[in-house]
Amino acid sequence: MLPGLERHPHARAVLTPALPPEGAPSHAYLFHGPAGAGKRDVARAFAAALLADGAADPDNARLRAEHGVHPDLTWVTPSGAAEMLVSDIDEPVVAAAARTPFESRRRVFVIERVDTMHENAANRMLKTLEEPPPFAHLLLLTDRPQDVLPTILSRCQAVRFDAPRPDDLAAMLTGTRAWRSATATALARSPWATARSCAPQPSATRAPRCTAAASPTLRTLLCSSRPRRSPTPARTRSRPRRPRSSSTCPRRTTSASSASTRSARSACTAARTPACSTTRCSSPGCGTAT
After folding, report:
1. Does residue 220 form part of some domain?
2. Which strand (E) or helix (H) includes residue 75?
3. Alpha-carbon separation of residue 258 from 252, 264, 265, 267, 287 (angstroms)
4. CB contact at 8 A, 105 and 61
5. Is 224 domain-assigned?
6. Which residues lie below 8 Å from residue 149, measured CB to CB, with a gap of 6+?
7. Fewest CB atoms within 10 Å of the CB: 57, 74, 136, 246?
8. CATH classification at residue 59
């Protein structure tokens, strides 16, 4: 049995009889279920089992497929901001499915978030779904099966994944250092959506360590419940800045006044006579005491 199918009876009943060498896998599967149910992990394990069948070194082929470096495994994610583009399907899936495998007996294509595929991209992939090569297998993943186009939904074998049970969710949360056992149990006993939205976030200094220690399913849970910061608007000036002229520059004004004061003091000292008996010179701009 594939790892990760222990708590998914429907997926176990569909995928276990299809495992090689005795099984006959279908050309297309649709893995659907809530986020964090483990669809991505099972898809990687199922693809590894398909690619290891008939390989010269099955263990090495399975290991490379699990790490995503097998040449006959193609993993597709949407490149658009909110949808899957035609370029995401055309060359990586449609054109590659027509070519024979590099070293395995099969070629496996995993396509995530097929609910974001618009009509043009779906029409581009219809021929591959209707008349696939005997060595091509497509694994489609979605969290919202109701948004998948009917033309895609009707040509795939559906595989249902259930939400984690409270005990399984508490075990996943307790396995990370950022969660305490009591907090994990309380979150696991709450509804699934409430556990995702009300979970306390780890601090900024511990977030990388928590993410590295968590399983892929838990990373999906933590990242989906993390609030996003809105971009800070740029500051605008209330009044436009006026360019400074040389006449109003404070430095130049101070220098000019200092020069005039020094010249006035020099003139007063040169023209001083014994008849001048004032305590302070009365010449304009001069304040030198006499």
Report:
1. no
2. strand 73-76
3. 10, 10, 11, 14, 13
4. no
5. no
6. 117, 119, 122
7. 246
8. 3.40.50.300
